Amino acid sequence: MVNRSPASPHWSPEQVGDLSDQVALITGGNSGIGLETARVLARHGAHVLLAGRRPDTLDHAVAELRADTPGARLDTLVVDLGSLASIAEASAPLAAGRTIDLLINNAGVMNIPDRRTTADGFELTVGTNHLGHFALTAELMPALRRARAARVVTVSAQAATWRSGQLDDLLSEQRYRAMHAYAKSKRANIVFTQELARRLSGMSMTAVAVHPGVAMTNLQRHSAGLLSRAVIAMTRRTLMGSPAGAAWPSLYAATIPDITSGGFFGPAGRDQTSGTPKPVKLPRDMGSLAEGAWLWAESERLTGIRFEPHPTCRADDRRLNPGKTTDRS
Ligand SMILES: NC(=O)c1ccc[n+]([C@@H]2O[C@H](COP(=O)([O-])OP(=O)(O)OC[C@H]3O[C@@H](n4cnc5c(N)ncnc54)[C@H](OP(=O)(O)O)[C@@H]3O)[C@@H](O)[C@H]2O)c1
Asked: Where do transmembrane segments lie in this chain (predicted)?
């Protein structure tokens, strides 16, 4: 899908307008880029639901944000993206009657040293970063549909464009390499977004993906040695290597009034490590109809969740998937 949203050389979070009519749910809202994204959304009046797996860290984040913005409208949602049961349980009350205007699929893990699995047996990185968010978005669809024009923002990474991120052997069952699993998960974030955008076609809801550039956060906790030294050096060289700076693309994609559904946005600065957000060009081989349809079907098969965002659109609709789906169910 082509990005048509204009580049915005002067955009900054100060331009975020009044969000008091918005309810935003952000995964990984207790830490790093998610916390900084939540901070700006709350400061501008949004009702923010901080989603995370540990109540203590969520409560700590709420206290920090309230100190920053007294009167901020904040709630917490305990959800483990590595457990389909947890996702279903946490989503149910929201799906039953609440409205969500903005879902920011931000949480993530990276560089897990050994192949570990989620509660459902999926490789942990893809299981958390992609399948967890696939399931969460599906479960929250009723709440998103209640909004006038909901938006789903999914946080990917530049690693999505690495050759090692090809989606075959999605769960690294044949061979596990930590950063390849991360690249797969981040490619899946973009392909998921593009396919979701196709399936939302004709609805007021939009889906966009972003990458934050580079920032020192807890994400690098497993990256001992060379990688972490390289990241630290790069971060020090950049103007906005902070989590606050890295939140700009998410905030931009979440709040600019008109955005191209299916678009991908990242920092415009040198090497896209930091700077004002802009549309980012994707490699040619990414996001074909066939890849999108395959990932969707595979994610449905693995999670057991039939995810049909458009009321009139069936998952095997030939308009979305011109005869190339591998239906493994
Ligand atoms: N930092 C960078 O340079 C960079 C670059 C490219 C892309 N990104 C992306 O940016 C996003 C945010 O990362 P960050 O840098 O802010 O890292 P971070 O500070 O480690 O935040 C990651 C968040 O994800 C949460 N999380 C992890 N596993 C979870 C699970 N099973 N269930 C629920 N929540 C879970 C973490 O919760 P806990 O606190 O409980 O662990 C934490 O809140 C990620 O998607 C990452 O891939 C970051």
From this structure: none
Give CA–CA dist 217/201, Å, rounded.
35
Q: Give the CATH fold of the 18-213+243-303 domain.
A: Rossmann fold (3.40.50)
Assess whether the C-beta atom of 160 lies below 6 angstroms from ligand 1: no
Token pair of 23, please?
């309810």
Testing ligand 1's pocket by substitution, the residue of 25, 49, 218, 265 carrying the most ligand atoms inside 8 A of its CB is 218
Gap from CA of 238 to ligand 1 centroid (Å): 20
The rounded percent of the chain whose pLDDT value lies above 90 is: 74
- Smallest CA-to-CA distance from 293 within 155, 180, 151, 196 is with 196
pLDDT tens track for 168-184: 999 999 999 999 999 99
The whole-chain average pLDDT of the chain stands at 88
Residue 112 is classified by DSSP as: -
Which atom of ligand 1 sits closest to the CA of residue 189?
45
Report the C-alpha gap between 197 and 95 in whole angstroms.
Answer: 20
What is the distance between the alpha carbons of residues 278 and 8, in angstroms, rounded to a whole number?
6
Q: Mean of the pLDDT values across residues 277-281?
A: 91
User: In 98-242, which ranges are continuous DSSP H helix?
Assistant: 124-126, 133-145, 178-199, 226-237
Residue 117 CB partners (closer than 8 Å, separation 6+): 123, 124, 127
